[in-house]
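Sequence only, no structure available. Ideas?
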Amino acid sequence: MAIKFDVSGLKESFSKQVAVMKKEGLKKTAENFWYGRPHTADEGGRRIGELFENKTGLYKHREWRGVKDTMYYFYMIWLYNYIFMVKDVMVMGGLVNFAKGVWRYRWVGQTYLPVLHWFDRGLQGMRGEAMAASAWHYRGMVSTTIRQFQRMFAADTRLHGGKQNDIYKHTFAHNETVWGGMFYPWSDKFQNVPLEMIPYFVTCHVNSHVVLNYIDAVQSIGLPGDPCPMCQAESGIFVLDDVPDYAPLVVTCNEACDASVSTSTLQDWFFDKPLFSLPMPMLFDDPLVKKYCEREIEECWKFIEQQTGVPFNWDQMVKKLEAQNELQRFEWEKWDVICHSDYYPVNGVAQALYRIYQTQYGEWEIWHKCDRKVRKIMEKCVSKKINPFPQTRHRVIAWSCAPLYYSNWCTWAYNCWGLNVVINMDSLMFDMTIRTDSYENMLEDVAQYHMWAPMRRMAVGGMKHMFELWEYMERFNCDMVAMYDQLQCKGVQGVHGLFEDEFRRRDVKAFWIPHALPDCRTVSRAEIRRLINDYMSTVMHEEPLDPSLLDFDDSMTW
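Reply:
I predicted one. Tokens follow.
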């Protein structure tokens, strides 16, 4: 039987390119080939939306960024990351464990294999220093993700005939919102792996469809649909038995709301192993409450000592905290560049995801490596006065909890409207270093860090912290706010009107982004774009930089 290939699309594309070349002339065509088409609203500007396949959002062909940047993307981002993804798998647990994990757990293959599409979305339209620096942030997150799921698979009793091997006995499981630094005193002998960070948090960003069946699963056993969908998804993972059994003990917490308490209850039922619940107080500005939190942390450490027989190691704690403080000091350097110049080279999505991942997971060597790479790029931008985002019309601060299924909306917003998200609320949660000069000072700062967890301090931490927005908006020289509106978060919903009143009183330009954290079915990506388009055209009376990005169908996209 003869095989027929449909080449009509290729013919159409080729004919279009020939027509463009005739219109522009050979010199202009050669210039656009060498440097890439400029990002302008004119007819000769690049049209990123024309690259997308209908519904899937996949590329029809690779984005041409000029010879230099396209080659950099191919060798130093696409090829480099695929090579090191394979290397990480081999070094951190081996190919056999990886193959078993892919076969057993649906979230692995659905997120690991298409991970470079995640890069493509987050780095869309980026050139030069912005592309390179942002990609290093993605590299750090990918490497850390592989480290975690490979540790899970190497220890998993379900993949090893029900046996608890030595790796199992030297691994801690904990809720993803329990800071990894809680386990620093044992980090020379044990590794900590968050329960939900890989099956839930990372998967939402890479493939927005993976967690939907978890939400449906927990509702199928009777949970109402109105609690936070993050907690629903985290619980549904256990309902569908899609979490490895990789550790002899579990530490959970109540972050960020009462729905998380229900998650911990379900985890306790399904795991049926020693579990310590480490609470996060709501009134963390009260010094007496802070003392209570310190005692709870010490009880958690005693629990670990009792379960493992290994005592608290002060020297190891100091070593890890000082390394973490080094990461935080560089973060402050980055913030200083953002606040006082246009030379910061990291885009909004890379900055936000890397920061929350790094601070929540805890200190590890890959963060230092990536920071060294980014420092070099940033210093080049500052010394040579390079503006990595020259199409910026507005400096935007994003506030409250972001839609996990559309974290790259800010990349789209920059390409389409010139909205540069320079800082995110979650990036500012852990704005502190931790003292190591004495046990008492260390414990006090660890308690503060624990209480400043994601979604805690500025989302449900009282009006004083919710309204820190105005201070940070001024500090980072922002003229616009992207206000996230998590529809199933009772805390933020309760202050919606108060923010509206303040926006009007202060004459702040702000647009709202409704969403349901990991559930892309409640508010679609297209709806989020439509709301921003409406605001920019009807309120700001501005024209898009790239009209091809105004309206496109990505309903089936990852």
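Residues 1-6 have pLDDT under 50 and may be disordered.
Hope that gets you unstuck.
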